[in-house]
Here is the input.
Amino acid sequence: MGAFEALPSDLLMQIFRLLGPRDAARASSVCRTWRSMVSDNRMWIQFLQNGRESWDSVAFAETHLRSGPPSLMYYSHSSQLSFMHVYGQREKVPGSVIIDGGSGYCKYGWSKYDIPSGRCATFLEFGNIESPLTSRLRHFFATIYIRMQVKPSSQPVIVSIPICHSDDTESARASRKQLREAIYTVLFDMNVPAVCAINQAVLALYAARRTSGIVINIGFNVTSVVPILRGKVLYEVGVEIVGYGALKLTGYLRELMQRRNMNFESLYTVRTLKEKLCYVALDYEAELLKKTQASFEIAGEGIFTLAQERFQTAEILFRPQLAGLRAMGLHQAIAHCMDHCLDNEIASDEGWWKTIVLSGGTSFLPGLPERLEKELIKMFPLSISEGFKVIPPQYGADSAWFGAKIVGNVSSFPEAWCMSKKKFRQKVHRNSSFLGAW
Here is the structure.
């Protein structure tokens, strides 16, 4: 190697870093010594950190999701991985289309993009709701592909499925299966090469870099409390559905503003004020004694000033009766779910159920994680409540989309995660043959 042999190894490493990943990989074929140096995980971690995703997302994906859904895999530690190999695999992963069919509206875009590229009505409410499900799905997916200006046959797709049937009855299981199979059928009829359909709450959990925990999704109309163990929704334990969501909070703020004879043009104005000024009180009674006025200007309407309405709005999450609702408080629904985990003897797995992950736009309200922790700790003895942790949302209403982005960029995608058209047809044929023989 001539003069290169005299260079200190740390200086050579600096040169390799400056070369960049492609040329560094080529340098590894020069000699055994260089290959050993270039294969150093620290250098490739640096290359990955400069990529499209944050390092914690990359590390989580490659150590927990690389072999497919977590319930089926052996967990590996990052030190066992060759990040040079991981980098090469991730460069070959095709960009996938992400369609997050949320409860309020759908977010869609590319796995290689930083944020969703568009939004529309969710497939639950898309088109004529009296039409058959497959017709609505076909219209829904076709509309998204037209808006994204991409042919369905060109890319794999990740679809997040909202929780529509939350119990574990035979009817609910059949409904979930029917919805999933309808999604596969419609997309494969559109010649999509591979489909990955994952529960929305599971994807929100991945966005928080977890595979187990209780996900609280404050949706548009309802709030769901979903226990998930190693990537699997525990329907047999119980998914709690609470009958209020973001729309109810906006409606309650409107009612409070009307009591003070505050004039506004639309519900959008009220929603904006909720997002900009409202928060969750850690101690509601103490907050009533404070001066809490704050103002925000709405273009074309002027300046609005809220006082106690700022924290009274979110208080219905804990005391729904304030808004005339017959429902459990959010903390009570979570405690109910935790009790079911304890009763079903699955709570011994390193306290996974003590991790509560928030998702949904309303979960961005300041003070919500702290208030939830406080209320939950009061409801359980110290021996159980020790270790409770409420994780605030990093992505809010887009949590499931970002969870899908993590899956779509993992080095094993789509092989480890997707259903191909051929496999789906074989599965349907096997099921029909079994039923025919039975």
